[in-house]
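Run log // design_07
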């Protein structure tokens, strides 16, 4: 049994714990929070496990083998690095790092110390990913695709009232692209590879964060359009269009509501809805398998771990180019404010 701790006490940490329980082989052993009372309230929902308020103490503790990091984006790199140096396996919420330089460093550090460092991204580890890839192969010639994740933020009303929630605070390397747009970039790179050219734009809020945006990824034979927003609710989902059929995807982040339409309009449901625990269980199970493979040497699992890392790096590098073209800059960027 792999003993893990959570860093962060938001709803996503609750969801990961539920997913990890469903995946099996993982047991919550500790919680880390900046504030004791917040940590204890969170731990009370999950078996009253020990609470740490000192990151270094948790990194050096023998009570855990691994950590799940769900802190603000700007903290992902330094916290991940500290835990890897402490000998802990790390699964970190997307985006795992702000820059590709940071990600390359952490992947190399994990490899050097025989540890797992993994970006937590649902779609890469869901059974629906293989369903989607197989369906794409049957669409014939694909000339265009459109991926959208537009979801009105629950924090937007507070932002408009004059508050500065973390997700709209550029000092924390947040904003729409980093929060939602990454869910569009991942399937684009996973299905079609790196583009030859990227054009991008962003709609900035008064506080400096991007509230919405879009980009076009150009390939020799197709264009892939990505759109994302935290200031409005999308309704029509995503599409991949081929001359032998069309795929409609209800949720690009969860890979649910996937339907295939034949040339004659015949509709087939390929992937329906899933609970949040089921959606989170895929990445939790992969994390467990990757850790176990370090001991067993199972080649196929270790290869999948390496491929997941390579995809994460390709996505991060693509995100950097999108940010550069759209004018989204963070303190972590080389040459900031440049």
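design_07 sequence
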């Amino acid at each position: 049994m792999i003993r893990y701790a959570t860093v962060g006490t938001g709803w996503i940490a609750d969801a990961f714990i539920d997913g990890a329980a469903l995946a099996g082989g993982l047991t919550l052993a500790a919680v880390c929070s900046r504030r004791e009372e917040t940590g204890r309230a969170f731990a009370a929902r999950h078996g009253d496990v020990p609470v740490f308020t000192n990151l270094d103490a948790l990194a050096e503790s023998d009570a855990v083998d691994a950590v799940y990091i769900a802190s603000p984006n700007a903290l992902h790199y330094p916290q991940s690095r500290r835990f890897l140096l402490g000998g802990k396996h790390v699964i970190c919420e997307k985006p795992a790092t702000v820059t590709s330089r940071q990600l390359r460093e952490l992947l190399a550090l994990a490899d050097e110390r025989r540890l797992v460092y993994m970006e937590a991204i649902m779609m890469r580890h869901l059974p629906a990913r293989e369903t989607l890839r197989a369906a794409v192969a049957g669409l014939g010639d694909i000339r265009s695709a459109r991926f959208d994740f537009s979801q009105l933020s629950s924090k937007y009303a507070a932002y408009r009232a004059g508050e500065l929630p973390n997700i709209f605070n550029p000092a924390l390397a947040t904003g729409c692209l980093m929060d939602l747009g990454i869910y569009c970039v991942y399937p684009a790179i996973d299905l079609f590879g790196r583009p030859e050219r990227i054009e991008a734009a962003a709609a900035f809020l008064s506080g400096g964060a991007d509230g919405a945006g879009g980009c076009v990824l150009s390939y020799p034979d197709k264009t892939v359009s990505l759109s994302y927003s935290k200031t409005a609710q999308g309704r029509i989902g995503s599409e991949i269009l081929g001359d032998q059929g069309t795929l409609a995807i209800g949720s690009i982040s969860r890979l649910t509501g996937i339907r295939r339409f034949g040339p004659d309009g015949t509709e087939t449901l390929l992937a329906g809805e899933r609970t949040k625990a089921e959606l989170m269980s895929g990445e939790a199970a992969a994390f467990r398998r990757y850790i176990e493979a370090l001991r067993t040497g199972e080649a196929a699992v270790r290869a999948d771990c390496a491929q997941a890392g390579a995809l994460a790096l390709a996505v991060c590098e693509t995100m950097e180019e999108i940010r550069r073209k759209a004018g989204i800059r963070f303190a972590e960027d080389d040459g900031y404010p440049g």
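The longest strand covers residues 142-150.
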